[in-house]
Q: What sequence folds into this?
């Protein structure tokens, strides 16, 4: 019972951070919509979120200290695996946020992070979502459409999957680095707060690049949008 009482404030703090991030992102998105274009200072970046699956439910069976330790270990791993041009931006509860000007180094880093977590039985499964687009940096944080899309894509990814919006494939284009990834089309998805359907792909390591018209992979998407 004591651990549950400790866990409550911790989860409240995490939810507050997530709510604050969502409100800040939506404020920037609203400004972009009103202006009809990205805000001044915006630049092309690729954004990724990775979060621990079922983290909140863990609070029912483990102590607040263990939850904090898991979140801290994830942040530490992400920092250790991150090197320029990829930037570790912040943690949001049980999630980490990474940004890079180019898609390929970010995809490589996120895939490594998922692989490392999957080999550690002391971790819950990790999932990640990635999107590219114009975003603006403010006080060390990033805001804009790709931030919102990447967050929503993460919420519909299956455990162990790295799911990307079609904007990532478009940003990568025919660059030589594209040959280092395999793509499977996961279908279009309507995401909360995002206008229109977003075409999603699961990305894996590999030397072959599959066509965007491949069959949808049912195990790439979670059952419902967050």
A:
């Amino acid at each position: 019972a004591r651990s549950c009482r400790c866990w409550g404030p911790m989860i409240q703090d995490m939810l507050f951070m997530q709510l604050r991030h969502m409100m800040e992102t939506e404020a920037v998105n609203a400004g972009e919509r009103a202006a009809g274009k990205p805000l001044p200072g915006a630049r092309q970046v690729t954004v990724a979120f990775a979060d621990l699956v079922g983290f909140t439910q863990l609070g029912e069976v483990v102590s607040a200290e263990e939850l904090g330790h898991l979140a801290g270990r994830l942040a530490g791993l992400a920092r250790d695996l991150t090197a320029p041009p990829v930037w570790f931006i912040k943690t949001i509860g049980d999630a980490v946020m990474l940004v890079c000007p180019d898609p390929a180094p970010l995809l490589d880093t996120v895939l490594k992070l998922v692989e490392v977590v999957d080999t550690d039985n002391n971790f819950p499964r990790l999932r990640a979502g990635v999107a590219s687009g114009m975003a603006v940096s403010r006080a060390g944080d990033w805001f804009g459409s790709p931030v919102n899309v990447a967050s929503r894509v993460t919420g519909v990814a299956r455990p162990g999957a790295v799911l990307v919006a079609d904007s990532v494939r478009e940003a990568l284009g025919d660059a030589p680095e594209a040959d280092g990834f395999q793509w499977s089309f996961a279908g279009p998805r309507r995401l909360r707060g995002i206008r229109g359907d977003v075409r999603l792909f699961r990305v894996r390591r590999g030397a072959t690049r599959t066509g965007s018209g491949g069959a949808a992979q049912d195990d790439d998407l979670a059952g419902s949008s967050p």
Remarks:
- Residues 1-7, 208-216 have pLDDT under 50 and may be disordered.
- Helices lie at 2-35, 55-58, 64-81, 103-118, 145-156, 166-172.
